[in-house]
Amino acid sequence: MAQHPTEDAPDRAVGGVPLPRITSADVARESGVSRTTVSYVLNDTAGAMISEETRRRVRAVADRLGYAPSAAARALRSGRSDLVLCALPDWPVGPVIDALLDHLTEELAVRDLSVLVYHCRGHRPLSDLWRAVTPRAVVGFTAFTAEEEDGMRRAGIQVLGTVQDEDLRRPGAFAVPQMQVGRLQVQHLAAQGHRVLGYAAPTDPRVAGFAAPRLAGVRQECRRSGLPAPRVQPVDVSADSGAAAVRAWRTGSSPATAVAAYNDEVALAVLAGLRAEGLRVPQDVAVIGVDDVPAGRLSAPPLTTVSQSVDLQARFLSAAVVAALDGAPEPPHPADVLRLVVRESA
User: Fold this and answer.
1) Is the Cβ–Cβ distance between 260 and 197 less than 8 Å?
2) What is the pTM of this model?
3) What is the pLDDT of residue 9?
4) Which residue pairs from 274-281 have beta carbons closer than 8 angstroms and sit at least 24 positions apart in sequence?
């Protein structure tokens, strides 16, 4: 039975009114040939005994009707697609994820590969998407099930990914050590002479996979350094929330003199709260964040932070994708992804 990989052209609309889908059957009818002939012509099937006149007629009709093969059809015709699918969990997409995807897109564009981002929200299975777009590779920012990985690999799709540092289900996958993020924050604050620390925790449950290990690292380093346990307060991204946390940290006989924040956005809310409470940074309270976002460099005072080197991560992931497609060994995982960036806030 002949295959017709030119079937799924996109829907069209004029003035918001959908028009009928153009299919290879429409091209065949207008050209006066069979759908198999249309498939052979538009897919440049080798060895097909079709006259040049028929080829010109089929292509002209396809152009006139506005028919375009689907991505899946192009992949079937060429045996490969130019897509790399990035599967994101249900995370809030902030400046760090934006920057990572932007860097990854630039790196892969050098190899004529395009990035398609899929947010894993709702109950639709990932398999629906990869079967429709036939990517050459899938980069997971979340752990796949064994069934998902097996299905993609059997379909000839390269599967790569990043994991949380405590996730052992993906041996060899790239991980940014989130516990080490928290440890670095405390090490820096302790070196500055701070003994009582507050911790600004996020309120968004979607980032629990990052927040829990970072706070665990803060607690672990406090114990190792002989410091009291951090005084944890939830802080959303608002000055009022930051001010309420500051009041809690500053009460009692031993007020906190430094705050480690879950990330830079939360840290900026803490800075706003400190200003609202009439406290100086870093003279009264020092603040350190995570991620080195542009806004932190422009805050008053500029924010000390732990950078996760998203450009370095993107270069590694891009090189890993290319190596997988070329059948080459995976590149070495980058060392020293985490970097302390010291500015005036701490």
Assistant:
1) yes
2) 0.71
3) 40
4) 274/242, 274/246, 275/239, 276/239, 276/240, 276/242, 276/243, 276/246, 277/243, 277/246, 277/247, 277/250, 279/246, 279/250, 281/344, 281/345
The reported pLDDT for the residue numbered 12 is 45
Residues 259-274 pLDDT 10s: 999 999 999 999 999 9
Of 326, 1, 339, the closest CA to residue 136 belongs to 326
Are residue 299 and residue 184 in the same domain, yes or no?
Answer: yes
Pair (220, 252) in one structural domain:
yes
DSSP run (H or E) holding 91: none
pLDDT digits 0-9 by tens, 95-114: 777 888 888 888 888 878 88
pLDDT above 80 (res 1): no
Total domains, the chain: 3
> Would the pLDDT of 326 be above 60?
yes
CA proximity to 134, closest of 105, 156, 109, 110: 156
Which residue range(s) make up the domain with 214?
Answer: 178-307
Identify the CA nearest to 161 among candidates 52, 89, 87.
Answer: 87
SS3 of 168-199: CCCCCCEECCHHHHHHHHHHHHHHCCCCCEEE
Alpha-carbon distance of 274 to 272, in angstroms, equals: 5
Q: What is the DSSP letter of 333?
A: P
Shared-domain flag, residues 184 and 297: yes
* CA–CA gap between residue 92 and residue 204 (Å, rounded): 9
- State the pairing for strand pair 258-261/197-201: parallel
Cα-Cα end-to-end distance for the chain = 70
> In this structure, what CATH number is given to the domain that contains residue 187?
3.40.50.2300
